[in-house]
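Quick illustration for those who missed Monday's session on complexes.
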Amino acid sequence: MAEQNYASKLERYDKQNIWHPFTPMREWLDHDQLVIIRGDGDYLYDQHGRRYIDGVSSLWVTTLGHRHPALNRAIVRQLDKIAHSTLLGLGNEPAALLAGELVRIAPRGLTKVFYSDNGSTAVEAALKIAFQYWRQKTKPVMSKTKFITLANSYHGDTVGSVSAGNIELFHKTYKPLLFKTLALPLDYDRDASYNLRAAANVFRRHHRHVAALVMEPLVQGAGGMLVHPPGYLRGIARLCRKYGVLLILDEVATGFGRTGSLFACEQEGVSPDLLVLAKGITGGYLPLAATLATRRVYDAFLGDPKQNRTFFHGHTYSGNPLACAVALENLRQLRKRRVLQKLRPKIRLFQSWLSTLSSSDHVGQIRQKGFMVGIDLVKSRRRGQLYPPDLRVGARVSQACRPLGLIIRPLGNTLVLMPPLTISNKNIGKMVSSVGQAIANHCL
Ligand code: PLP
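Prediction with pyridoxal-5'-phosphate bound:
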């Protein structure tokens, strides 16, 4: 009884006091809600002690599972030294060690680490660095003030990162607040050379005014798990080099193993000028982000303080020691436990389970890049009919997965699966069959 009362109190406090992100709050208030109390490995446990597979890695962050003993110990060890000291004017031990490690594992040429504490601010830093770089390089190019983005891009929710985004539903309200970008069209049904020809036209016409191109490599996550045609990233990197445009790669979602390699850009042999990392960097434990830069970019910010070449940007918790300590341990465990090598057969198993969903007429395209999966729900694949967005079929099916012991969160009518990298083979099967059952019961 006391436990039941405590569970009700949590739900009540949540409903009375929390304004949830990306959440239609009227609907939230009208329904019973889960309050997560603890986690363990692949699982989350709610206020009633019920267990769920964490099918989206707690919004794409958990790498090694919840309550991982080595990650827990890393935080406790650091807590015994210090929880926080500022990176403005001081260094700290874990931030220094992590920067060394990030530079060692990052794509070639990225040797400087600028810390922040979430993906949006790390993108924001990259945009400002790119803009400032052209004004401060040895031969300044003051005309380079614009950015190229991709159709359907998502890079975060601060005003600069929203400006770099192109998702109508999320971004249209804020249009009057945003700076304009040049959005490249992308036809996912055509190959890379077709899409690169369209991109080349934009570069040819506008490069004199473009500071940088910003994109997610290989997969656009929040855009709907849209997988780029092979060779597209390599071609874009070539165009950036040819036309003197900096390349910013946002690996907030794709980084730290999600696409099957440590960084997605490795798969096309591309090293950007700026690389944005967040989410999985701490294994899903604490907020931390990093914007990595090349020596060439960094050097433009060197000079006598009177010259004002400083990058006037920073956050209170930039490079927080607890977050850096757990990030270091996350990287150590990924290597020591050979997590990426063990991921390969899991990706294949995932793929074969996903193919079983295609027997449903309500499953449209299934897109997979490593452990990033999007499943389009359609009214009828055979008849080519879509669901109207306001039916919110994605949300309904995701909700229906909960009694089956699975937590997922959709993007519109696309179901997203992105489990922890260490999920058991058994739970990969369980996750996909629960999705199949929810589709069968809730798609009409
Ligand atoms: N960039 C990408 C590609 C993302 O997927 C996200 C978040 O989903 C962000 C940036 C923003 O990260 P954050 O939510 O930590 O601000």
